[in-house]
């Protein structure tokens, strides 16, 4: 029982807050509930196909080939594949996290994982098409060039910070 309470403590806390809001301001509470329900239903519509695709990728693509093309020795090919995988992806950002878990399990280089996640956010083709129609091709091209440089730089910077910098010794002072 304690495990269940600990695991779902944020959900339980937010449910209690929602009940309190419903008691004190019924209209606001109903709006909050409807928004939460809508987000939950949207997530349920997106996640099953993604999980199915991830299962297929996990079975069909071997760890050796992922390490060959996106692993420690992948260089520019790993960067290109990371950006391409994310650019052609569909779905919200929370859909990238299961993909990221598969990439980690397949031995993909950490900088390529960060590049993949950043690219998922800013270099999606579906978003680019909308942006071109709304803001123009010049703006989109300039933003895209800056994003390519930024995504790659951030991938290597985060990789350096996490893996290469000397670890500080942790001490607890009470």
From TrEMBL:
First-listed, main subcellular location of the protein, grouped into a coarse class: membrane
Keyword Transmembrane in annotation: yes
Family matches, as InterPro entries: DUF318
Topology in membrane: Multi-pass membrane protein
Annotated TM spans: 12-33, 39-57, 77-104, 110-130, 142-162
Residues in coiled coil: none
Signal sequence interval, chain numbering: none
Keywords carried by this UniProt record: Cell membrane, Membrane, Transmembrane, Transmembrane helix
Compartments where located: Cell membrane
Keyword hit for Transmembrane helix: yes
Similarity remark: Belongs to the UPF0718 family.
Name by which UniProt lists this protein: Permease
Lineage: Bacteria, Bacillati, Bacillota, Clostridia, Peptostreptococcales
